Structures are given as C-alpha cells and as structure tokens.
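User: Just a sanity check before I run the rest of the batch. Below are the structure tokens for the first item. I only need the designed sequence back.
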C-alpha cells in the first residue's frame, strides 16, 4: 500500500548545512542547557549523519578527510574563541566546514 521512495527520488540533505548545523547546534545546546555532554550528542549526531552522506556521495578518502575536518573545526573553534569570542568562533568554524563539505560532497 505504501511504497518507500527510492533513494534517487528522495530529497538529498545538503551535507554543508548538516555539518554547520551540528557545530552551531552543539554549541548552542551546551551553552543554553549548561550541559556540555548534551551539546556533544548534538555535535556527534549531526557529524554521523553528515558522515553517512559523505560516504554515500564521495570516496572513502574524501569521507575521512571531511570527518577529520569536522573534528578539527570543533577543536579549532576553542582556541579561536579566546581571540574573537565564542559565537564568532563557532560561526567561523561552521562556515569553514560548510564550505569544505559543499566543495567536496554537495557540489555535483
């Protein structure tokens, strides 16, 4: 009765938006709830979903590089926050990650 649409007809999630949302959403959740592990859950969930899409759309090497970039964006936002502030650092890291993801996986 109900047919599941094929993957090719399903709307593709832009991995650039997903990765950026994971970085911003993870920080926002940690900051506003006061629970850093909860922010980590959001960060990890978005990273996992983005990673699945990167794996589906690109090579294993590109997937590994984008995964590494995602972790580096998260880690790099911490020292950057000491120089420019927390929110600007998070937005800078998210923008850099979105650009990398778009260039490697979304722009087809």
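Assistant: Here's the designed sequence for the first item:
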């Amino acid at each position: 009765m109900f047919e599941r649409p094929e993957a090719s007809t399903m709307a593709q999630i832009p991995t650039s938006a997903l990765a950026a949302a994971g970085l911003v959403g993870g920080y926002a959740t940690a900051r506003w709830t006061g629970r850093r592990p909860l922010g980590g859950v959001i960060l990890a969930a978005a990273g996992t979903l983005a990673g699945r899409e990167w794996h589906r759309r690109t090579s294993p090497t590109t997937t590994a590089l984008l995964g590494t970039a995602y972790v580096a964006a998260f880690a790099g936002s911490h020292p950057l926050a000491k120089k420019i502030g927390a929110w600007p650092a998070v937005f800078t890291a998210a923008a850099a990650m979105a650009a990398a993801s778009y260039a490697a996986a979304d722009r087809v």
